[in-house]
Design a protein that fits this description.
The protein is mostly beta strands and 149 residues long. The protein has one helix at residues 25-36, and strands spanning 2-9, 12-20, 40-58, 63-69, 73-84, 90-99, 105-125, 131-134, 141-144. 8% of the residues lie in helices and 63% in strands. A hairpin with a 2-residue loop joins β1 and β2.
Amino acid sequence: MQTKKLAEANGLRTFAIILETGDEAMASLQAFAAREGLSAAHISAIGAFREAVISYFDWERKAYDKIPVREQVEVASLSGDVALDPQDKPAIHVHVVLGRRDGSALAGHLTEGHVRPTLEIILTETPAHLHKRVDAESGLALIRIDGPG
């Protein structure tokens, strides 16, 4: 993993995070967020995976179904955020659209992605903290914005 701070002004920081063949995307993002002490950020990326696991939240069961992707795919779109979990640790939440050789696409929560040859990530941190709390209806830790907007 290579990282570079691209800009910093008024509490806003922007980073380039470049992952290489063999890097696992979610673990790399989690390590970066912990190292930088991130509490609120937006993530976007493009690149490719040699294999991945995406997940779909089954509302009735209140559980994620894992979908293994055992082929080379293009990361056509990756978008997500960083917020503090209920224990005040950085939590990564990423959705991804993966393009197959035939042009079809798979989409869902990114659970695991093994990079080949690169994943080019831009992460922009904001100075405000975002906090997640467990939602009683879904059982998920969701971002909640308190106070006046």
